[in-house]
């Protein structure tokens, strides 16, 4: 019940933050539209857009949750919450549930736009993959927020945590054409398996890897969560 109450509180906060709602729901579909006109009907659009259905939720949720948690800590809200029966895992899994629901709405809008507006052939599990990617981005954002003291520092984790996964997931260069050591690094990055799941190769196994990485990140976030920024 505490986890559900936490999720409800976060969803109420999101509902009153129109800019964040726009970022979560409108921006991915708008960026897909930009890609569509950039490629102007070229076959490469299908491959890139399909990958982006997994990348956009991951990046956006990482950014939103890392800053949201940092604000709760620096404003003293987190310290007050942790003086109640609320446990750290209750808080973090409440975040996971709330942003998972937000990610589901985001994924539905993005996949619907890709399929109905831009003619992209989306695999049956595209929405589920996008939701799991959103939860992964959220979990890593919560973990990284523990090591930031300001919102600017939180944003600086994007090139450290997000960019390598984006470069090595197979979007820019097929993984089998990378150097052996880069393939080895790619094999331990969860976004790689999200992209593979979108390709519908081994969707359930790859989804299990991404979901496991998200749960592990949440547990690590609970272990490193501090009440306030020092």
From TrEMBL:
<keyword id="KW-1003">Cell membrane</keyword>
<feature type="domain" description="ABC-2 type transporter transmembrane">
    <location>
        <begin position="8"/>
        <end position="200"/>
    </location>
</feature>
<dbReference type="InterPro" id="IPR013525">
    <property type="entry name" value="ABC2_TM"/>
</dbReference>
<protein>
    <submittedName>
        <fullName>Transport permease protein</fullName>
    </submittedName>
</protein>
<feature type="transmembrane region" description="Helical">
    <location>
        <begin position="51"/>
        <end position="70"/>
    </location>
</feature>
<keyword id="KW-0046">Antibiotic resistance</keyword>
<dbReference type="Pfam" id="PF01061">
    <property type="entry name" value="ABC2_membrane"/>
</dbReference>
<keyword id="KW-0812">Transmembrane</keyword>
<dbReference type="InterPro" id="IPR000412">
    <property type="entry name" value="ABC_2_transport"/>
</dbReference>
<dbReference type="InterPro" id="IPR051449">
    <property type="entry name" value="ABC-2_transporter_component"/>
</dbReference>
<feature type="transmembrane region" description="Helical">
    <location>
        <begin position="124"/>
        <end position="147"/>
    </location>
</feature>
<feature type="transmembrane region" description="Helical">
    <location>
        <begin position="207"/>
        <end position="225"/>
    </location>
</feature>
<feature type="transmembrane region" description="Helical">
    <location>
        <begin position="91"/>
        <end position="118"/>
    </location>
</feature>
<keyword id="KW-1133">Transmembrane helix</keyword>
<keyword id="KW-0472">Membrane</keyword>
<feature type="transmembrane region" description="Helical">
    <location>
        <begin position="154"/>
        <end position="173"/>
    </location>
</feature>
<feature type="transmembrane region" description="Helical">
    <location>
        <begin position="21"/>
        <end position="39"/>
    </location>
</feature>
């Amino acid at each position: 019940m505490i986890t559900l109450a936490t999720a409800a509180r976060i969803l109420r906060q999101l509902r009153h933050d129109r800019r964040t709602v726009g970022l979560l729901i409108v921006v991915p579909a708008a960026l897909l539209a930009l890609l569509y006109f950039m490629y102007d009907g070229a076959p490469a659009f299908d491959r890139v857009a399909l990958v982006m259905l997994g990348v956009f939720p991951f990046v956006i949720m990482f950014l939103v949750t890392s800053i949201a948690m940092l604000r709760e800590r620096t404003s003293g809200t987190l310290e007050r919450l942790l003086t109640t029966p609320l446990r750290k895992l209750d808080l973090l899994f409440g975040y996971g549930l709330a942003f998972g629901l937000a990610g589901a709405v985001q994924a539905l809008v993005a996949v619907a736009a890709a399929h109905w507006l831009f003619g992209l052939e989306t695999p049956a599990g595209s929405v589920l993959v996008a939701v799991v990617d959103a939860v992964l981005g959220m979990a890593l954002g919560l973990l990284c927020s523990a090591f930031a003291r300001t919102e600017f520092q939180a944003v600086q984790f994007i090139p450290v945590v997000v960019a390598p996964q984006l470069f090595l997931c197979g979007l820019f260069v097929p993984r089998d054409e990378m150097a052996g050591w880069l393939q080895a690094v790619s094999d331990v990055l969860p976004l790689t398996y999200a992209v593979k799941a979108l390709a519908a190769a081994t969707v359930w196994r790859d989804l299990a890897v991404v979901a496991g990485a998200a749960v592990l990140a949440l547990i690590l976030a609970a272990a490193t969560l501090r009440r306030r920024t020092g």
